[in-house]
């Protein structure tokens, strides 16, 4: 240490420091930067198993080689993220034709889902499943996420993501039960009526901020029960049911003859 | 116990005497203490509104200590992580401070907001009671109008109040207000500039709303509540028909001590219920909505319940009714649902006592209330108006109905468009028929008594069910009202064949009167009752010499000539 301290006024010291800083930054970036390719490359076995699952469960609508059919899109190039979202939320395989595919308990376990995702990803390049770090709410900025959510998401999903109605029976679902990974994948792939928010539109950091904002909502409402967080209509119902209900009951009691 | 007054009693007597000698207040206190109020739960609905208003003033007083009515932009630094570093108006920031930093602030905010919703709910319920019992009839028409204005002021107070925090939700409401004002032909855009001090949203609207909300509107409400209560005291309270109750008396308990205790206690019950709601149920979580910015609109954006009918009208109205005439836009799609329909609905409500007085031509005072069934058309009109209002409320929540009941938003809107016109008519017709049916039931009861389920077989094999005659009190309630019949008018020409002045007005009056009173069931007259009873005696004499005396029981009711008194 003493040797370094003695040379701290050396004229090459700033250059050395700069190089050191660059090295640390570069190293950290290499170590921490999100990389789609780095998400554990699937093995040939996974792809083969995924193909078998696809043929058995998905090919009826999407075609034997996922090329798509009337009413069912081609899956070539949709990427692993889209498959993981649709299958892990139970939307695919679709239960029935309707305004939109509904979420239900997933039909495949995590391993089968990743095999299906690996197979579809092998058909053509597309968005990969995000890494755990990319979707970690504790790394995001909830305040910035809130501002982004109000601008980009709230018009369909409501102020804090409790869902909302779209036209003809379609709807934006409640985001409460969604996992951070599913939220990220939905933004990246734009399932059903949802627009795609690609990395130019919302950067991966901004997506994580939004996930952090939605994570904040799990803490509950500081004002008591949130009444479903559906806004003034819910409040109006409860003021009639609880407020007027209790007070009319009391009025009947008070107004009863005392004799 | 000593008969000598204690020190406390002497001091109280001395003070009272001092005040009485100088102000003559003793007469007033004595008069008030002996004022009689009738007992009925529905007479306490107005009190709920009054007490909510008192609580609104008390909690609002607290909120003004901390709220900053300013649209100056600042950067929030505080305990709420989801807002840290976000730019917002001082109004929004101070609302967050009130909610998260001021001790008891969130409770006070929630009490204030729940009390506002309850205030309007109680006003509407009280108004329904007054309407359906006919308590608005002479001499109380003016007080009905005062109450109506109070309701409008309540709407205004609520609207100016929930816009103050400057959050996204209420900002959307202000944007709709801006659109509604601009839809008024010719003067609309100027009025919008006038209200917002320039282009929406500007920097003036929050301070302006604040002044209206804490000074002008509550001042007017307070003054009109004074007038409303003064008129109640002046007219004396109405009462429901019953034994000993007439147009010239009030049957009930004195203000002191009975009603001081009942009404005073009720204040604390109202306060308790509001505190319970505010302590356990979130209301208007502005931290969810975020600071106002004209660009975002959240799904599920609705106003408080009493404004929801306007939202519903806007949601129902087809957008195709916007026309561009010579470069000027005529937005009938906004003007009709937000200005014309509420205008018509409210005018009809305010004018109703005068319309009914026109139909009856009745100039007498009424202090006995109607049972709603005895005024079938009035009850039907009331239910029809409520139905239209309720359809608009539901339409205002059409997106929530769609998501919660898995229905198509479009279908719901089409259905409500039809229902808005059809449902009030059906509701009117059904209510009128129900009222007439209930009146028939009353006649049946008065004439034949209660069914007892006891079947008696006579010696000759005939079965009859024994009916128990009504007692005097039960009968009185069912026969006391006077029958209302359509007005008869004089012919158009007098005996000399000259056209009579004012015939057209009379003809109109007759038409309105026919609408009100053509279908009617008249109460049982003493003669009809006597005939029914003699029928029973006739059976008793002819049918059976009888041991069990049942027909005699039917015949033994007291006469009801009381109704002619």
What can you tell me about this protein's structure?
The complex is a heterodimer of chains A (259) and B (565). Chain A is mostly helical and 259 residues long. Chain A folds into 3 domains: 31 residues; 90 residues, Cytochrome c-like domain (Cytochrome Bc1 Complex, Chain D, domain 2); 116 residues, Orthogonal Bundle (Cytochrome Bc1 Complex, Chain D, domain 2), CATH 1.10.760.10. In chain A, 50% of the residues lie in helices and 2% in strands. Chain A has a two-stranded antiparallel ribbon. In chain A, α3 packs across α6, α5 crosses α9 and α7 crosses α10. The radius of gyration of chain A is 26 Å and the shape is flat. About 2% of the residues of chain A have low confidence. Chain B is mainly alpha-helical. Among the domains of chain B are: 249 residues, Cytochrome Bc1 Complex, Chain C (Up-down Bundle), CATH 1.20.810.10; 129 residues, no CATH class. In chain B, the strands form 4 sheets. Chain B has a two-stranded antiparallel sheet with strand order 1-4. In chain B, α3 runs antiparallel to α5, α3 crosses α10 and α5 packs across α10. The two termini of chain B are 51 Å apart. The C terminus of chain B is likely disordered. Chains A and B meet through α7, α8, β1, β2 and α11 of A and α5, α10, α11, α15 and α16 of B.
Annotation, overall tally of beta strands of chain B: 8
Q: What do we call the CATH homologous superfamily of the domain at 41-289 in chain B?
A: Cytochrome Bc1 Complex, Chain C
Number of helices of chain A: 11
Radius of gyration of chain A equals 26 Å
The structural class of chain B is: mainly alpha
pLDDT < 50 stretches of chain B: 538-565
Mean pLDDT of chain B: 89
Would you tell me the overall average pLDDT of chain A?
A: 87
CATH fold assignment of the domain at 41-289 in chain B? Cytochrome Bc1 Complex, Chain C
What is the class of the domain at 41-289 in chain B in the CATH system? Answer: Mainly Alpha
Percent helix of chain B, as a range, is: 55-70%
The number of strands of chain A is 2
Question: Strand portion of chain B, in percent?
Answer: 5-15%
List the domain count of chain A as a whole number.
Answer: 3
Anisotropy-based shape of chain B: globular
CATH architecture of the domain at 41-289 in chain B: Up-down Bundle
Main location (chain A): membrane
Binding site for heme c 2 (chain A): 153, 156-157
Subcellular location (chain A): Cell membrane
EC number (chain A): 7.1.1.8
């Amino acid at each position: 240490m003493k040797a370094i301290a003695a040379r701290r006024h050396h004229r090459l010291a700033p250059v050395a420091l700069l190089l050191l800083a660059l090295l640390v930054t570069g190293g950290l970036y290499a170590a921490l930067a999100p990389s789609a390719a780095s998400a554990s490359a699937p093995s040939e076995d996974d792809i083969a198993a995924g193909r078998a699952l696809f043929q058995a469960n998905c090919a009826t609508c999407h075609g034997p080689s996922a090329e798509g059919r009337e009413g069912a899109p081609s899956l070539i190039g949709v990427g692993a993220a889209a498959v993981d979202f649709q299958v892990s939320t139970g939307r695919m395989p679709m239960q029935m034709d309707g305004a939109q595919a509904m979420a239900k308990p997933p039909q495949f376990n995590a391993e089968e889902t990743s095999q299906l995702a690996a197979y579809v990803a092998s058909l053509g390049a597309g968005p990969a499943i995000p890494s755990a770090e990319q979707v970690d709410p504790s790394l995001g900025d909830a305040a910035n996420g809130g501002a982004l959510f109000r601008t980009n998401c709230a018009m369909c999903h409501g102020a804090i993501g409790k869902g909302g109605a779209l036209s003809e029976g379609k709807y934006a679902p409640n985001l409460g039960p969604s996992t951070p990974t599913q939220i990220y994948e939905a933004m990246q792939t734009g399932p059903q009526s949802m627009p795609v928010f690609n990395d130019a539109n919302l950067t991966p950091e901004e997506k994580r901020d939004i996930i952090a904002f939605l994570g904040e909502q799990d803490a509950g409402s500081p004002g008591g029960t949130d009444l479903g967080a559906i806004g003034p209509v819910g409040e109006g119902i409860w003021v009639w049911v609880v407020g007027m209900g209790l007070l009319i009951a009391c009025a009947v009691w008070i107004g009863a003859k005392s004799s | 116990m000593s008969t000598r007054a204690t020190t406390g009693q002497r001091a109280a007597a001395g003070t009272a005497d001092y005040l009485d000698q100088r102000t003559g207040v003793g007469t007033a206190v004595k008069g008030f203490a002996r004022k009689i109020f009738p007992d009925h739960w529905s007479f306490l609905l107005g009190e709920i509104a009054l007490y909510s208003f008192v609580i609104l003033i008390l909690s609002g007083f607290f909120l003004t200590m901390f709220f900053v009515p300013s649209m100056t932009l600042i950067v929030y630094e505080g305990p709420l992580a989801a807002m840290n570093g976000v730019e917002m108006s001082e109004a929004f920031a101070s609302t967050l401070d009130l909610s998260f930093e001021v001790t008891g602030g969130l409770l006070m905010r929630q009490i204030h907001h729940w009390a506002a919703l309850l205030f309007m709910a109680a006003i509407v319920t009280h108004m329904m009671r007054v309407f359906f019992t006919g308590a608005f009839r002479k001499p109380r028409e003016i007080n009905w109008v005062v109450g109506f204005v109070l309701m409008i002021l309540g709407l205004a107070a609520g609207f100016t109040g929930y816009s103050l925090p400057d959050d996204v939700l209420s900002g959307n409401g202000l944007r709709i207000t801006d659109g509604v004002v601009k839809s008024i032909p010719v003067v609309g855009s100027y009025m919008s500039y006038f209200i917002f001090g320039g282009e929406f949203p500007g920097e003036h609207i929050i301070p302006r709303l604040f002044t209206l909300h804490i000074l002008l509107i509550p001042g007017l409400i307070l003054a009109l509540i004074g007038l409303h209560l003064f008129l109640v005291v002046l007219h004396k309270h109405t009462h429901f028909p019953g034994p000993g109750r007439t147009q010239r008396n009030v049957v009930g308990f004195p203000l002191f001590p009975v009603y001081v205790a009942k009404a005073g206690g009720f204040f604390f019950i109202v306060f308790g219920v509001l505190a319970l709601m505010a302590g356990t149920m979130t209301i208007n979580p502005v931290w969810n909505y975020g600071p106002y910015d004209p660009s975002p609109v959240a799904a599920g954006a609705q106003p408080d319940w009493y404004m929801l009918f306007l939202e519903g009208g806007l949601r129902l109205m087809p957008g195709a009714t916007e026309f561009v005439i010579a470069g000027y836009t005529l937005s009938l799609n906004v003007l009709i649902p937000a200005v014309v329909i509420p205008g018509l609905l409210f005018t009809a409500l305010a004018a109703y006592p005068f319309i009914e007085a026109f139909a009856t031509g009745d100039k007498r005072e009424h202090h006995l209330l109607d049972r709603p069934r005895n005024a079938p058309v009035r009850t039907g009109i009331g239910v029809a108006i409520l139905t239209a209002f309720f359809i608009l409320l539901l339409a205002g929540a059409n997106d929530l109905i769609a998501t919660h009941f898995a229905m198509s938003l479009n279908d719901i809107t089409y259905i409500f468009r039809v229902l808005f016109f059809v449902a009030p008519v059906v509701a009117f017709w059904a209510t009128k028929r129900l009222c007439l049916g209930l009146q028939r039931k009353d006649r049946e009861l008065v004439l034949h008594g209660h069914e007892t389920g006891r079947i008696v077989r006579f010696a000759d094999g005939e079965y009859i069910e024994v009916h128990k005659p009504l007692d005097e009190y039960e009968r009185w309630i069912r026969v006391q009202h006077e029958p209302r019949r359509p007005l008869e008018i004089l012919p158009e020409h007098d005996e000399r064949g000259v056209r009579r002045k004012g015939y057209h007005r009379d003809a109109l009056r007759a038409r309105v009167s026919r609408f009100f009173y053509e279908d009617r069931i008249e109460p049982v007259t003493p003669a009809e009752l006597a005939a029914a009873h003699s029928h029973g005696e006739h059976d008793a004499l002819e049918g059976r010499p009888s041991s069990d005396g049942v027909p005699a029981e039917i015949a033994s009711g007291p006469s009801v000539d009381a109704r002619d008194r």
